Amino acid sequence: MLKTKVLKMLSEVNDFVSGQQLCEELEVSRTAIWKVIKKLKEEGYQIASVSNKGYHLISTPNVLTKSEMANHLHTTWVGKEIYSFQEIGSTNTVAKELGDQGKPHGTLVIAETQTNGKGRRGRNWESPLGSSISMSILIRPEILSEKASMLTLVMALAVHKGIKEITKANLKIKWPNDILLNNRKVAGILTEMSAEPDMVHYVVIGVGINVNMDSISKEQAPYASSLKAETGQEFNRAELIANISLWFETYYKLFLETQDLSIIKKEYNTYLINQDKNVCVMEKDKKIIGIAKGITDTGKLLIEREEGELLEIYAGEVSVRGIYGYV
Ligand code: BTN
């Protein structure tokens, strides 16, 4: 896409790039470049245009357009194809449709807002316009379908690391896939798949992050917050998505080496907020109380009961809480 290429050239130098250089390198006319610059300005990019000097990118808006996303990505395969929407029902649903259409491994779907965002266990997920991240990655792993649920934990580590590197905040993971800051949820992950027992067609991993909302109403979501509300800072969403995607490639490779979490388990357990704490596991009408002892190689949560008995809890439909509250 010409817009992406122009943006890339402008953002690579902190100076003017001449119109002639853009035309020659991109093999297009002056008018084509002028039209792209006009479009970029409309999208909120501040670009100085000076005759005899050319164009200078002064500032970039915090938007999730395809060009802005492509400009930030330094991945090998995540985001090879990008679909971006101003408003969409759910990025997971779009990614599944793209999966059915045969789109490639690593296809990335992003949106400025979702009208029907889906959370775990049938809940809704709010994605306010312009201040949240809604992203879904379509992957085609050659694994047995029973192993796919581990990918949620692989992504949890990537989201944790990807956000932490940029925000420098002390984030934690609440098993299996919530990302917490100051004991409040700032990101969640929803994994869906299309599979037969011995073969996975595709997996869609969706990530929702509360980034630049000033606050989140306590009535609506008593345990939720945003990166901005907790740190007082605003963050560039495309940069966050790019960094999470990069880390996802790393952790995914480690997962594929053994087709389980044995290599990344230690790191996951380091950040586990429930580690060595009393937790209450709720499964429909059953309640199990014990001390969380980290995850197993397959991503189950180990719970030590009073009698010293160790139970392995499968993520499925359970929810884990601290015995006196959320964590
Ligand atoms: C949860 O914690 O309940 C999971 C939330 C997952 C939300 C994300 S936002 C992007 C993707 N599209 C969806 O409809 N859901 C996921």
Structural overview:
The structure is a single chain. By secondary structure, this protein is an alpha+beta fold. The protein folds into three domains: 2-59, Winged helix-like DNA-binding domain superfamily/Winged helix DNA-binding domain (Arc Repressor Mutant, subunit A, Orthogonal Bundle); 66-270, Bira Bifunctional Protein, Domain 2 (BirA Bifunctional Protein, domain 2, 2-Layer Sandwich), CATH 3.30.930.10; 274-322, SH3 type barrels (Roll), CATH 2.30.30.100. The chain has nine helices and 14 strands. It has helices at 2-12, 19-26, 30-42, 66-72, 91-100, 150-167, 227-231, 237-258, 265-271, and strands at 46-50, 54-59, 82-88, 107-114, 132-139, 171-174, 178-181, 184-196, 199-210, 278-283, 286-295, 301-304, 310-313, 319-322. The strands form three sheets. Strands 3-4-5-9-8-7-6 form a seven-stranded mixed beta sheet, sandwiched between helices. A five-stranded antiparallel beta sheet has the order 13-12-11-10-14. A two-stranded antiparallel sheet has the order 1-2. The protein is elongated. The structure holds biotin. Biotin (BTN) binds next to helix 5, strand 5, strand 8 and strand 9. The site of biotin has 21 residues, from helix 5, strand 5, strand 8 and strand 9.
